[in-house]
Specification:
By secondary structure, the chain is an alpha/beta fold. Helices cover 51% and strands 15% of the residues. The protein is built from 25 helices and 18 strands. β9, α13 and β10 form a beta-alpha-beta unit. The termini are far apart. The model has no long low-confidence stretch (mean pLDDT 90).
């Protein structure tokens, strides 16, 4: 607001001064020039009548002379005043039009309207800095889950896309530099309902500045940052950034998981994918044999580290060894699109191929050329741009690494279902048999689509009926929540993945587990199971039917009679 007022007064200072001076001179002239009253006596107009006459004279002509007919001297002064005020008004209006078209003024007005809209928000929201491929994927996922988001991006064209995107929720957007604290504050950084800040720009330094600003101005807010530099990650971690996501290291860990435990990798893929998408098939990367890695950039270094940690033989192909820091003795110089380079890397006897350059066209060419030389390759492809999705689907790589999708999926898990992130971390310590059994159970209840994931807190807001039942001393067990509230003998198509009670976590808890107020549970299952479970959680009669087979009496009188009858029967 202060910026808008300042710009108005700075640009309109001269026109306003000109208007005031012209009006003052015109009024003063009418007061000083003598006139005559109705009887022909000398008369001078007072300041009120002079101000009144000049006011309507400057906007329209034709109200007549007042309070008496003017003398020739007064009429001559009015003629001069008319032309002068018209010129000054044209000058002032021209400046107003110029001001309205000024980019700085329009930006200030936009920021003011945006700031007012954010202050009026009454639901929790996440501040997303950067609306590129990763940001748009994350915002789409959040709105699909009925969560609110606010976007800040330096590119006006990307912010304008918010108005035409098919999003379930309205998402306010501001064109501004997220590295500037003023724009973060305008976007609601210090708003009491700001649930988190997500830094997703393509510049590590900007993400670092966002993280620092967020933690200094709002220490309690959760901050999630994208980073693809280990030095930047260490800097972010030093002042308390909650989550730092490196897409290259993340995918490298996923590849290592697939090598060690394909069932666990498939479980992770199913649970973190968008709900109701098609179930993916398991992948089995070769755990023995030669791997050819094309591209020794940030992605290549992360993958090479994991492959060698698994004891695999790896040959690196790099076009610019001096730039990436690899010695000539440890690599084959080239892009990998040429048959000669691939043959030099012994592609004929290779089991796996990683096309990991930062150029999608090169990666596709590498895959096509390598398959001509070795049709049985397990192919890992790096997809840099979302626009090339259809091409990478056509090439049918076994695994595709798209940085934006990896970051968006991980962040949506952290924001929408934080318990799922904890569950996956604990599941890493389980064996392949455990993972395969859980995958089979999930496939049995969801058929062909990925499961719905939801959390439940045993408190009055989310579980009114269960909380009151526990408070009255009646034990509620996990199997009660898993029963169908219409046919209690039937089990809902859902699985309890984890329970957190008194800061202790247990994965796949037993059906007889007793629930307590304050417990948090993580479920997966068919989308219809969630709505039925919410009915059990909130409705006392549905819960009573599941627990006893009958309906709980309503009102104190009937409850008292029920207790008396039970005692008498005893």
């Amino acid at each position: 607001m202060n910026n808008v007022v300042f710009l108005i007064f700075r640009r309109m200072r001269r026109p306003l001064i000109s208007l005031v001076l012209v009006y003052a001179v015109a009024i003063l002239g009418l007061v000083l020039i003598p006139g005559r009253d109705a009887q022909g006596h000398p008369w001078h107009m007072d300041f009120f009548h002079a101000f009144y006459f000049v006011s309507f004279m400057a906007t329209t002509i034709g109200f007549g002379e007042l309070p008496y007919e003017f003398t020739d001297g007064q009429r001559m002064w009015v003629i001069v005043s008319i032309y002068i005020t018209v010129v000054v008004w044209i000058y002032a209006i021209g400046n107003v039009l110029t001001l309205l078209q000024d980019a700085t003024f329009r930006q200030a007005m936009t920021e003011q309207r945006f700031s007012r809209r954010i202050k009026a928000m009454r639901e929790e929201f996440y501040l997303v800095c950067g609306y590129g491929e990763t940001g748009s994927a994350l915002v789409n996922t959040l709105t699909e889950r009925n969560q609110h988001a606010v976007v800040v991006d330096i590119d006006e064209e990307r912010v304008s896309l918010l108005g035409v995107e098919n999003l379930r929720q309205f998402v306010p957007g501001l064109c501004g530099d997220a590295a500037r604290p003023i724009h973060l504050l305008e976007a609601g950084l210090k708003h009491p309902l700001c649930a988190g800040v997500v830094a997703l720009t393509n510049q590590n330094e900007v993400n670092l500045k966002i993280a620092i600003t967020s933690k200094l101005l709002h220490p309690e807010v959760r901050v999630i940052c994208r980073a693809d530099s280990h030095d930047i990650e260490a800097n972010m971690a030093s002042f308390g950034t909650d989550y730092i996501i490196d897409p290259f290291d993340t995918f490298a860990r996923h590849l290592a998981t697939a090598l060690q435990s394909p069932g666990l990798y498939l479980l992770h893929d199913w649970l973190t994918s968008l709900s109701h998408s098609e179930l993916t098939e398991p992948v089995y990367p070769p755990a023995q044999g030669l791997w050819v890695l094309c591209g020794y950039g940030r992605f290549g270094k992360a993958v090479l580290k994991r492959l060698r940690a698994e004891g695999l033989e790896v040959v690196v192909i790099e076009a610019d060894p001096a730039l990436t820091g690899i010695s000539l003795d440890d690599c084959v110089v080239g892009v990998g699109t040429e048959p000669e380079t691939l043959q030099q890397a012994q592609i004929e006897r290779a089991a796996g191929l990683v096309a990991g350059t930062d150029n999608d066209a090169n990666n596709l060419s590498i895959i096509m050329t390598a398959r001509q030389l070795n049709a049985g390759l397990f192919v890992v492809a790096r997809q840099n741009l979302m626009d090339n999705q259809s091409i990478f689907e056509a090439v049918q790589a076994n695994m595709v690494m798209h940085p934006s999708s990896i970051i968006a999926n991980k962040i949506q898990v952290l924001l929408a279902t934080p318990m799922l992130f904890e569950f996956i971390s604990l599941a890493q310590y389980q064996d392949e048999g455990w993972a395969c059994e859980l995958v089979s159970r999930i496939a049995a209840i969801t058929s062909t689509t990925t499961p719905e994931i939801w959390e439940v807190s045993i408190e009055e807001e989310q579980a009114l009926a269960v909380s009151r039942c526990i408070a009255e001393g009646q034990p509620v067990r996990l199997h009660h929540l898993l029963a169908d509230p219409r046919e209690r003998e039937n089990r809902l198509p859902s699985i309890a993945l984890m329970i957190e009670s008194n800061n202790a976590r247990q994965i796949l808890p037993a059906a007889e587990t007793v629930l307590h107020i304050g417990d948090r549970l993580l479920f997966c299952g068919h989308y219809a199971a969630r709505s039925k479970m919410e009915w059990t959680l909130q409705n006392q009669h549905a819960l009573a039917y599941i627990m006893t087979g009958g309906s709980r009496p309503q009102g104190r009188v009937w409850r008292t009679l029920e207790r008396l009858m039970s005692r008498h029967g005893a």
